[in-house]
What does this fold into?
Amino acid sequence: MVSDLLIRLRALFRRDAVESELDDEFRFHFDQQVEKFVQSGLSLAEARRRARLEFGGSDQIKEECREARGVRFLETLWQDLHYAVRMLRKNPGFAITAVLILALAIGANTTFFSALYGLLFQSLPFVHSERLVSVWSMSSSSQLKRFPFVRSSAPDYYDWVKQNTTFQELGAMEDQGYNLTGADEPLALSGWAVTANFFDVLGKPPAMGRGFLPGEIGPAKADVVVLSHSLWQRAFGGRPDILGRSVTLDKRAYTVVGVAHPDAEFIQNLRVEFYVPLDPVQQRGARSLWVIGRLKPDITEAQALAEMRTIATRLAERYPDTNRDWSVRLIPLREFLFGDLQRPVVVLYVAAALLILIACANLANLLMARGMARSPEMALRSALGAGRLRLCRQMLTESLLLSLLGGALGLLLSWWGVDLMRGMISVFQKSSGIVGTAHITLSPWALAFTMALSFGTTLLFGLLPSWQASQTRPADALRAGGRSAGEDRSRHRLSRLLVVGEISLSFVLLAGFYLLFRSLDHLSHTSLGYSSSRLLTLELSLPSTPEYQESRSRAAFCHDVLDRMQAIPGVLSAASVNQHPLSGGGNNPVPFEIAGRGMTALGDRPIAEARTISMNYFQTMSIPLLEGRAFTRMDKSVVIVDQEFARRYFPDENPLGREISPPGGIALKIVGVVGTIQPPKLADKFLSAHVYIPIDNYCLPEITFMVRTTGDPLALAAAMRRAVWAVNRNQPISNIQPMQNLVQDRLSMPRLITIISGLFAAAALVLTLLGIYGVMAYAVHRQTREIGVRVAFGAERSDILRMVLRKGMAMVGIGSVVGLVAALILCRVMSSLLYETSPADPVAYGVVMVLVAVTGLLACYVPARRATKLDPMAALRCE
Amino acid sequence: MFPVEVQGVYVPEQRIDLPQGTLDLLILRTLALGPNHGWAISERIHQISSKVLQVPQGSLYPALHRLERRGWIKAHWGASENNRRAKYYELTRSGQKQLGREESEWKKLAVAVAQVLETA
It folds into this structure.
């Protein structure tokens, strides 16, 4: 056995030595035989001749010896590979095209499938993250039913905790903002106040120290804080002795009891830089808590939902004032975080899948054409004695080589593509405020699947011609012409079918791209309701210290800063507001009561976003004043509403002069109506109504300064900061950026999707062009004799041209029709991505049809011209 | 296959084709008498069988290589009687055993066939 192996190895690696040994052995035998004949009386020449005759074909004997050596398979494989490489080098165009097509198909598909898989299936980095659900309140009242996610109130939450049996843990969080002082520079932080079991819900205990004890939550809330991992690194240098130290938040001392795990940072749409114990307002109508829960191991989401709904109904009956029409909604955490992304990625994945189909069709045609071109060669080999298996193996090796090269390149592209996807997703997250990245990695399943698909195509269509070649008799194949008419026709039909398929798929891709493009166009030109150019925003949050306890002092702060800002050269006007139009703060609708309409339950009252603004806010923002007047310094107890508010709640009457009051507040008179502004998130199809309150009336601690400048807004950023610090040196500023950046960020996701789909559409068009050209060129070639006959019988050049073009355009026509139908069906899936564009937009389809027709014409042109230039004599002579 | 002229007389040589397994047996047996090179093996078989069995090169050498691979014979290069470079084969120990096995099988087969021919 060992000797067997040794001999085989020697035969493989010392081939030359083994071959020459065989030569020597034969030569010796031959010489001995000659001598024997000489000794038996023959002449030397005669002896030699006799011996040579006896020996027979030494090459054949050598061949058999080689077979006996048992390494034939490997040797022939090596030969095949060598030959395959040489063949590909001789036809670089074909090789490069095939490899590129394979690589593109594999790369695109793997990338998007990996992204989709990561978004849909990969777990968040928490223990059993599939059991994490976020719990929302939901109202069926007419005012609020358009808000899918409403926070919950503390009494509701505590009742849920007491009454449920389906959750292992239910935790609650509330937004909290503090100013950190005493570190290198004052920082404006945002974080959460949480319940004691928060870290248990996540299943990710703090990396250092501990979470909160039950005794620290609630009214007796202790002054303890858990820092987020990034804050610990950023503001405290990651010092290991952080536990037990004291930090100053809003001028109060808090003891650091823990540092959270870095993975705990990406849960919802806010930056979370610290955690403090929760002490919520105990009003059932004040809905300010986010609630997340961990389901018990055997409980399904449906069961939990059913129970929570029952509890909600019970609460609604017991507390009709606050809870009538309120119910509960559960959504898995992963879906809540990444749901917005799923639709675009699915669309892109479908596009990538279509592209891979087109690529495979093109590849198939390419391989078949090449196979047909080589069938004389195959026939020759067959005539020389190659078995069918050998022929097929030859072609197989070539196809395999192509596949491997394409696969390797495709792998590289996938790597790069997945990186790109990660970047794309973090762009999305930046614009919607999620911290951290989704875990997208190259999915081995996706890679395996796409490689199998492409390899399969290559092997199948590479093998097909050789299989058919091996079946025809060599004599037939070697005869001029090279193939039988029948199989040729069927192959041509297959090619045409493939190209028609390509055309229709390209149609779909082009239509999709066009729709996305139009949608993007609409988006970028849609009026925001205010002017965003040369506008600087500066966000800060006044701490809850005695200094700023009163609304009046906060308003005074604003006035002071604004006065300083107005004095800076280059500033056209400056104003303040609590939440600027594109801030990530989300919707916080406040219910108002309209005087003179009788008492209404809280759930039915008109709601609007409340904004506390300085006097010249509308002027600074270029929001048009439609009716009434702006605020003046003398105003007390007045409001200005926007057009949406007027339209919704005063449809048939003039709102001016009417009074409205916020919950627990005094009546405010409406003195003006201004234009409506666009909602911050593009996905929001509903406009919000706004009520604007002067800061002298009430000033919220969150303040954003909006500054309209003559030149580049960022140039004045430092001056703006100084203006703030001149009033209060310890006031941290959380954010300064030009409004234009935020507007652009909004568009970044749709723009990215449009660009990528554009790339796909362009690639598809190029592939289709090549495909049509290939088939038409071959068709003309096939019909050379027929064309010759026609011309000989008097057909004009234009007749020939028309004949060829008609054939080509027939394919294009059928492909377009099929594509149109397919596009109408498939583009409906995209409609959630489209802004003010209908998926059945006739202009879109018209444009695409023209584009495809032009492409077809272009592709047919060269073969058609070649057909008209055929010399009839040569055509008739050739076969 | 070719008539050989022996002192003016053409004697037709007939060749009987041997089944492959039998050839292996003959080669092994020949080598049991001592190591030898390919030509000599073929000559010896020819002589000992009273010139009935002629092993053509096309069968001999593949068989030799096959046997070598199976480990029943091993080869080395050496000088022949007339000082030419030749590849000598000799029987290995496992070759000896294989020879014994094949011999007894052949004998059994021969007896069985003879019996059938006599009675049938």
Remarks:
- Chain B touches chain A through 29 residues (CB under 8 Å).
- Residues 78 and 86 of chain B are 6 Å apart (CA to CA).
